[in-house]
Design brief:
It contains 12 helices and 11 strands. It has 340 residues and is α/β, with parallel strands linked by helices. Strands 3-2-1-4-11-10-5-6-9-7-8 form an 11-stranded mixed sheet, sandwiched between helices. Helix 1 links the parallel strand 1 and strand 2. Helix 6 packs across helix 7 and helix 6 crosses helix 12.
Length: 340
């Protein structure tokens, strides 16, 4: 029986280097995955001159023209009102209408979340969807972090919902059998943190997730892999993510400089090349690009706005994995289980 193709709606005009990196990213994915069809939403006058240079995409795509796009600095409220025919909105509409299985965008994060929330609506019992991804850690399993920027301020009920969704995401996407949950705080002591953090901890302790609750964790615990799921508000989560990405880039650059300073250091690099390559790849943000907007009645993936084609291709690959895992169906079942 022929496998049905996965249809991916791509916001071609979102991101710093669009539409080029979107098309190139799709080409990378198309070269290894044959069960995918791409829906390119954007300005055809900009897409057509580029796409003809990527032969692996031949007969694998459909272009849906719109000359309307949402800028990186546009306020979400304005994007909602004026961007009804934007490439971002049309890509999300395609998921809502069943024309696509998932949407991927490197565009304005606030606008993407606002539009997705209005068009797709949150899952039952979820007040605010969140942005979630897996951060590389020392234990190789990955640390689920949410929220990463969608909700700047969160009360205890919202943080508790993040814990439930993060727990489900870790089980389904990372295949972790019994994920441990931690709340990001400024210390591990029970008295540390603001009211929302302390109240959220009490809610988890009184829920079905009580046996999975580790307690409070600090920033260094994210990459250490102390817990499988780290819960925080979008303000702190986004800062944490950018610090981790910046540190990874700095370490990679320092290694590159160190091994190019002299003839002896270059010999040392050749001897350690394989080990260094593995380490730097693990820290490469492009290879971990692609975050799910979790808690919606539809799958949407956010790519980093400044990524390149390799990074965008990884975001597409994440989207494909989420669709194949039937992530939303499984999360809904997990949420029902936590309420019963």
């Amino acid at each position: 029986m022929k496998e049905e193709k996965i249809k991916i709606a791509l916001d071609c005009m979102g991101g710093d280097n669009a539409p080029k990196i979107v098309i190139e990213g799709a080409e990378i994915v198309a070269s290894s995955k044959k069960d995918v069809h791409f829906l390119f939403y954007g300005d055809s006058s900009k897409i057509n001159p580029l796409i003809k240079n990527y032969p692996k995409l031949k007969n694998r795509y459909t272009i849906i023209h719109t000359d309307q796009e949402i800028s990186s600095d546009e306020k979400p409220s304005i994007a909602l009102r004026r961007g009804t025919q934007s490439s971002m909105r049309l890509a999300i509409n395609a998921v809502k209408e069943g024309e696509a299985d998932v949407a991927v965008s490197a565009g304005n994060t606030g606008a993407l979340m606002a539009i997705a929330k209005i068009v797709l609506r949150p899952l039952p019992s979820i007040e605010r969807p969140a942005i979630v991804t897996s951060i590389p850690n020392q234990k190789n399993s990955g640390t689920v972090l949410l929220d990463m920027g969608a909700n700047v301020e969160c009360d205890s009920d919202v943080l508790f919902q993040f814990a439930v969704m993060g727990h489900a995401f870790a089980k389904i996407a990372l295949k972790i059998k019994d994920p441990k949950i931690g709340i990001l705080n400024i210390g591990s002591e029970d008295l540390k943190g603001n009211d929302a953090v302390r109240s959220a901890a009490l809610l988890i302790k009184e829920s079905d997730l009580k046996d999975n609750f580790y307690g409070y964790v600090e920033g260094n615990d994210i990459t250490k892999g102390t817990v499988d799921v780290v819960v925080t508000d979008g303000f702190t989560g986004n800062i944490s993510l950018k610090v981790i990405e910046g540190t990874a880039k700095m370490v990679t650059e320092l290694l590159r400089e160190a091994f190019s300073r002299s003839f002896i250091s270059k010999i040392g690099y050749l001897l350690a090349k394989t080990a260094i390559k593995k380490s730097t790849q693990k820290m490469d943000p492009r290879l971990h690009n692609g975050a799910m907007l979790i808690g919606l009645n539809g799958v949407v993936v956010k790519s980093h706005g400044g990524t390149d084609s390799l990074g965008f291709s990884n975001a597409i690959s994440v989207a494909i994995s989420l669709v194949k895992d039937k992530i939303n169906e499984q999360i809904s079942n997990e949420l029902k289980g936590s309420e019963s």
